[in-house]
Amino acid sequence: MILITITLLLVLAVVTLAVYVPSSPLPVVYVSKVYIISMNLTHGEPPLSYIDSLKLTHPLAYGILINEENVTAPWLGVAGLRLTLIIANATSMQYPILLKSTSVSGLRGGVEWVVNLTYPVNLMPQPLSLSGRWLVSIVASVGGFNYTVFLFITGSESLGDVLGNLTSVNGYLIEANGFKYYLWHHYLYNGSLYYGVPLPGVTVFYSWFGNDLNASFRVTSLPVVLNNLPFPSYLRYFTITLNQFYKGVLVNSTSAGVDYLLGGETDYGYRVFNISRLAPLGPLVYYSPILMLPNGSLINPSCLPMYYELTVNLGFINPAYGNVIPVTLLNEQLGVSGITVINGSLILGGYLVGYDFYNLTYVKITPLGGLLGEGVLSNACTLITLSPSDSTIRVNTVNTGYWFIMLHWLRLITPLLIHYWVR
User: Fold this and answer.
1) Is residue 149 within 8 Å of residue 198, measured between CB atoms?
2) Does the pTM exceed 0.90?
3) Mean pLDDT calculated for residue range 303-318
4) What is the mean pLDDT of residues 64-88?
5) Using CA atoms, how far apart are residues 421 and 423, in angstroms rounded to an integer?
6) 294 pLDDT more than 90
7) Alpha carbon of 106 to those of 79, 114, 371: distances in Å?
8) Cα Rg of the chain (Å, integer)
9) Nearest to residue 415, comparing CAs of 60, 70, 54?
10) CA–CA distance, 206 with 118 (Å, rounded to integer)
């Protein structure tokens, strides 16, 4: 009897221990990888190698580009900007990826983004091995708007390859057609080479100003004397202004005078256009309004209630009283171009459209004019939606075909020779 009782007690004890002493959970181990992405940013302009290729075949375009590039700091328009780098999956994957980093560019356009990728060590497949199409964009915050100044959807490649190439000085992204889109290029500035990454959504341009048209010539020289001053001394009385309007309200304005350095290099237009006494007004900077809205949507500029006004003013000295009277020589409303997709990957648009009095036609005021003519137009108003809830994006491009495009920069930075003049 005693033996039986002891045995039962032992069994009960064992059962009790099994119920009330749970096993310890395994801790989740995370891996963190940090990528430092450093770039020398420039405004959008063609590489020096391409400009040199125009010297014999398109001497006018070559003359404009080589002189404007040499006197214009490549970091004009990109220095001191608050810039956000975004990398996200553009196609469906096993799980969503959204990487964002914000930094402020330096006085010469240098920027450094710190991208932190943290994930569970047992996550399968590993994030760096995820393959598909990726959105890579750079968003600049200017005057209360978020301008997407670089927008690219890669071909099929891994996240590890994307991050690795972004951290490399000689890095590239894979286009939808399988070709490489190199990020870094050489530019000419002040007689020396500069190596940087151009942002297509940042445009710098000049407006070459001449006298009015006549039956024999499209543009003629400015007067020898004005305001009792000889040319080019009186050019200091000229100003050019670019105003940006959103929903009818002025949201941004930038002005410039005559660039005497560019004038001196070109003999005030004679070495380029074979016309003497022209006034190179500028440089002016504008940002392509591919806007990122607070809900994460990227909007086609042609769908926005936005327009620009380009104005040229002359301070005319009243000979009777000696006071300066502002006279408007030109006031032109500029439209905004829509979206063009290059090789199914590079998304461009939002460029100003103005009248070129030298060539007597409307042109897109951008260094990428020739390239735009080779792309595929997109009519979708919402280009991309970046959802903050699940970190995925929807891409609404019209065509992502596999095209191989030769870059024809025939009308890269088109001069505006304005025909208005005060007699």
Assistant:
1) no
2) no
3) 93
4) 95
5) 6
6) no
7) 6, 15, 29
8) 29
9) 60
10) 46
What would the two tokens of residue 145 be?
Answer: 């708007």
Alpha carbons 284 and 275: distance in angstroms, whole number: 23
- Between CA 160 and CA 128 the distance in angstroms is 4
pLDDT of residue 368: 65
pLDDT tens readout for residues 20-71: 555 667 788 889 999 999 999 999 988 898 889 889 988 988 899 899 999 9
SS3 263: helix
pLDDT at 201 exceeding the cut of 90: yes
β strands within 297-406, DSSP E: 297-299, 306-317, 324-336, 339-342, 346-349, 352-356, 361-365, 376-378, 382-386, 393-395
Cα–Cα distances in angstroms (integers) from residue 109 to residues 42, 80, 115, 337, 412, in the given order: 7, 7, 19, 26, 22
Q: Where are the beta strands (DSSP E) in 17-167?
A: 30-43, 82-89, 98-104, 110-120, 131-132, 134-142, 145-153, 157-158
Per-residue confidence band for 362, with pLDDT thresholds at 50, 70 and 90:
confident
Is 296 in contact with 390 (CB distance < 8 Å)? no
Positive or negative, the CA dihedral 334, 379, 347, 248 is: positive
**Residue ranges per domain, the chain?**
30-397
Tokens of 360: 């007597």
